[in-house]
Amino acid sequence: MSQRAERELKRVRRKLKKKNLKAVNVEAAGKSIRLSGSAGNWDERVRAGYIAAGHGFKGVINDITVDGITEPEMSLPLVSDEMLDGREFDAVIVGGGVVGCAIARELSKMNISIVILEKEADLAMQASGRNDGMIHPGFAASPGTKKAHYNIRGNRMYTELSKQLDFELKRPGSIILFKTAWYKLLLPIFKARCRKNGVEGSWRSLSAKEVRRVEPNVSPSQKGGFILPSAGIVSPYRVTIALAENAVENGAEVFLNTVVRDLESADGKITGVVTNRGTLRCGLVINAAGVWADKLAEMAGDRFFSIHGRKGTDAILDRSCAPLQRHIVGMPSLLGTKNSHSKGGGIVLCVEGNILLGPTAEEVPDREDYSTEPESFNNLLKQLYLNTRLNSSMIINYYSGVRAASWDEDFIIEPSEKVSNLIHVAAIQSPGLASAPAIAEDVAQMAVRALTSAGVRVLPRADFNPIRRGIPAVKDLTAEARTALIKEDPAYGEILCRCEEVSRGEIRDALLSKVPATTIDGVKRRVRAGAGRCHGGFCLPRVIQAMASELGVQVTDITKKGGDSAILIGETKEEAAREAAV
Amino acid sequence: MNKKMICIACPRGCAMTVNLEGDEPVIRGNQCSRGLDYARQEILQPLRMLTTTVKTTHPDYPRLPVRLSCDIPKDSLLECMRLINRVRVDHDCLPGDVLVSGVAGELVNLIATGDLSYDA
Amino acid sequence: MKQQYDKHRYDVVVIGSGPAGMAAAVSAADSGVSVCLAEREERMGGILKQCIHDGFGLIRFKEKLTGPEYAWRYEQMVRKRDIDFMGLTFLTGIEKRENDFKIAFVNPERGVFEIEAGSLVMAMGCRERSGRQIFLHGERPAGIFTAGQAQDFINLKGFMPGRRCVILGSGDIGLIMSRRLTLEGAEVLGVYEIGSAPSGLTRNIVQCLEDYNIPLHLETTVTEVHGKERVEGVTVCRVDENKKPIMETALFLACDSLILSVGLIPENDILAPLDVDIDSVTKGPSVNQRQETSVPGMFSCGNALHVSDLVDYVSESGHVAGKMAAARVLKREADSGQMVIKKAGILQYAVPQNISFPVNGQVPVFFRPSEASDHAEFIFRQGERVIHKKKLSWLKPSEMHRLELDLSKVRQDGPAVTFELKPEAVNE
After folding, report:
1. What percent of chain A has pLDDT over 90?
2. Structural domain count, chain A
3. Across the interface, do C160 and A566 touch by the CB < 8 Å criterion?
4. For the whole model, what pTM was predicted?
C-alpha cells in the first residue's frame, strides 16, 4: 500500500473517531477503502460511508452492519426454466433501466448480438420508472464530475432522440428561486458554474418581478431567481421503453423476469451468465444493474464500490393543474446542505400535463423499498408553498423510488480493472436520466474496444434504423385522423379509461408492441390507462378483461406488476364447482 | 326488558325500542307500519332477503343477478347460498323469471333480477 | 327507441344513462321534445347494474327492488319512448354557444362526431375516492380495491378480489360489499372507520355487518399497507380527536385485500372549461330550483349534482332536470333574476343553492346536516319572515333529508333567503 493510502486511512479513522463511530473498522481493499464493523443505527452507517469518501480511493465499500437491521435481499422472479440456456450473445446487459436500454440501443448500431436481462416483469421498474422525469440542465453537478460531463452531453442529445424515438420532450426550463435577497451575491458563482459545466441556453438571473411575470402563481416569498431554459421533462419509463424497442427493432433481445444469479469466470474473464432461465455464453457483460450493481460486481470478483439506497418520494397532481405553472421551480436551501445529497426537490412539470412534487431523500436499508410514509410525504407537501394556487387536494398519486448511490456520489462508468470483459455502469442516480444517452455512447465505445480486443469483428450495422414509432395517443389526434383510424379499427373508438381517454385499441397496442406490456402497470405506463384521477377505479375491471382476452389468458392470471401480484384470486362460486365435481 | 332495534325495512332506519314484558310486544320509535311488522317478525324469527348471482354460460355476462321470491330465515342464508351457487343459467331470461322453483324449501323460488340474451 | 341514429341536433341531450340520466331522458321525452341519451358503456343502467342488493324503489315504485330490477324498469320506459340511445359513446368536449351547445363525442361506430343540443342534462354520476385521496401509505401491492371495483368484479364478472378482507371506510357500498364478500365465502375481518360515526346508512350496519358478525371499528383507520406484490396485511390504528393515529394502538392484521369505501365525488371534470359554478361542499354545480347550473341551458342531476343516499331521489332529480331542460327549449325566456340561498345553523349543504325568478309551485329541497343532532328544526325564511318550518329528528350527516318547499312565497324584491337547520335542546 502506498504511503499516501496509509495516510488517508489514518485520516478516515480519525474522522470516524471524532464522530464517535468507534466500532467501525477501516482497511484498504485493493484500490478501494473498506469499512466494516458495526454502527448503532443506519444514520451512523451512512455517516461513516460519506466520511470514507473523497480520500482518493477508487471506491468506498461500506460493509458496516447495524444491529437489528438486515439489508433485505433482492426480490426474485418466480419463473424458472431453461429458455436461455446455451444462448450466446456478444453483449449481455444486466438491467433494463434507462441506462441499460440506452446502451442496448447504442450497441444495436453495431452488427453484434445484444441481450438485456431484466429481473422485473417490465423495463424501468425501479429507479428509471420512479423519478421526476427531469432532463436536468447540468447546473447542479460540480464541475469536473462525471455527473456534470454526462448531464450536459445527455441533455443536448435528448432533442434529436425524442424525434427519432417518438417520445415527448418539453423544455419548460427551470427556475432556482431565491429565498432571500442576498442570494443574489451568489450569482457570479452560478454563472461561473454554468460556464464551467457548459450549461446550454440563455441562463440568466431574474428579478423577483421578472420571476412573477414568467411564473404568475409563484410564492410571494421569492426574492428573484436564476433561470435555466435548457431544463427539460420526459416520461422516464416511456424513454426507457422507447430506447429498448428501437434496440429490439435493430436486433437486440429483451428478457424480462430474468435475474442473474451468478457469473462463471475463467482467466479473468466472464464465461457464463447464470440466470433463472439457464446459463448464457457472453462476449462481454455490462453491469447496469442499478441498486444491485455492487452485487453483480461481487459476482464477477470486482467489488470495488458499494451502493446504498436513497429513497425519494414524488407526488403527482391532477392534470387539470397544468395551467397553474409553466416552469420547473425549486427553492433550494443553499446553506446547510452539507449532509444532504439531493438537490432539494421542487415542483416539476410532467409531459402529460400533470404537476409533480418531489423528490424527498431518505437513506433506506431496503433497496427495493417503494413504500411511502406520512412523514416524508408531509415534507413533500411543503413544496406546495412554491405555488400559491396548488393544494394537497389536487394530488392524485404518489410513489417512491430508490436512488442507486455510491459513497462518492459520482457515476461509475468504466471497464473493470480485474475482469477483461466487464464494464461497470453503476451508481447512476440523478441526473442519470438526463445523462443516459451520453453514457451509452461512451459505454458502447468501451464495449466495442473490449469485443475487438477479444477478436470479435465489430462493424456498424448497415441497416440500422434509428426511427421508432410509439403508440399514438388517439385522443391527441385531429378529429379527422381519429375518425379515420376508428373507421379502420373500431377498437380505437371504445374508451376504456375515461380519466385519460384511452381506447381499447391503444391498450391492445401496448400488449403487441416490441417490448410488450404484460402487466396492468405495464399498460398504464405505456398508454396511461389507469393513470388518471380515479386511479383505475373505473377502468381496472375493463382493462384486465381486455388484457386477458387479447393475450388469451385467464383474467386471474393478470398481475399488477408480475410475480405474485395477481389482481384477482379466483372465481366466485368455486366451492360449488368443486362440490359438483365430486 | 327493552330491546333496541334498527328497522331495516327502508333506508330511513328508524331506531326502535321493543318492550317484551307484556303479552304483546310494545314497539316504539317506528315512523310507519312497516316498522311494526319488522319488529314483530324480528322477535319471532328474523327474516332476510337474499340477493346474489348465479353462473351463466354466456361469454360476455358470466353472472346473472338473482333474488329469492321471499325473505327466508336469517340463519339459513349461507346454506341457501350453497344451493344457489350450483345453479347455472344457459338460456334467455328477463327480470322476474323464475329460474328454479323451490330452491330453498318448496315455497321459495329463485328469481332472475337481470336480463340475459343469447342472440346477437 | 331508436339506436345510434345519425341525427345532428336534439332539443335535449342527456349525458349518462344511470338512474338520473334515464329519468331525465324519460321526462324530457314526455314533454314532447327530441331527446338523445349518451352513455359511455354498452348498456344503460349505470352503477345499478352491479348493485344487486335490494332496497331500491320504495319511494318511486312503492316496492323493494334490486338495482338491476330498478334499472330495468327505467330502461323499459326509455325504450318505449322516442329517445335515441347512443351506447359506447364517450363525451370529449362541450362548447356553449349563444343559444345552444355543441357536444363532441367519440364512439366505435362514428368516430369523432358532434351533436347540437338546445339544452343539456349532465347526469355523469360520481366516482369513488381512491386510497391516494385519503393519503393511504405503505407498500403498493395488488389487492387494494375500491368497493365499487370489488362489486364490479364479484357481481358482474364473477371474480373474487380477496379471501381475507379488511374494509376501510363505512360507506354504504363498503358495508354492502362486506355482506357480499361474506356470502361468497370470503372472510371480512372488520370495517374500519376513521370518524366517530359510520358514514353509511344505519340499516346497512344492521343487515350487512351485525347479521354476519362483522365488527365495525370506529375512530380507527389503516395506517400502512404491507406486501410488495400482493397485500399481506395492513396496520390498523386508533385515532385521536384530530384523526391523528395513536401509534401505541397499532395492530397488524394479516389479510389479502383491502377494500376502500371512503367517499364519492361527483364527476364534473368535463365542466371545468365552461366555468360552471361548483358548490365547494357538494362538489356538484350550484343550481337553481330547476336544477339549472350557472350556464343557462345546462342542467345537472343525480349524483353528479350531489351524492344521494337513495336512488329514488336520484331519479326524482333526473325527472326535474329532464323536464326543465325540455321547458327551456320550448319556451326560451330569460330569468327575471336570481337569488343565492344562504345557509345557517348545522346545515352542511342544501340543493338547490339558488332561486331563479319567476318561481312557481313546490320544489323538492335536499340537504344534509353538518353534524349529528337528535332534534332540529329546518327553517326557511326570507329576512326575518319565516316561510316554512319543520321539526326533524335523528339527524346525521350520513343521511340526506328531503323537504318540499313552496319557493313561490319568496319575494324577488325582498331580503336574502336563508335555509337554517337549528339544533334543538332535548328534554327527555
Report:
1. 94
2. 3
3. no
4. 0.95
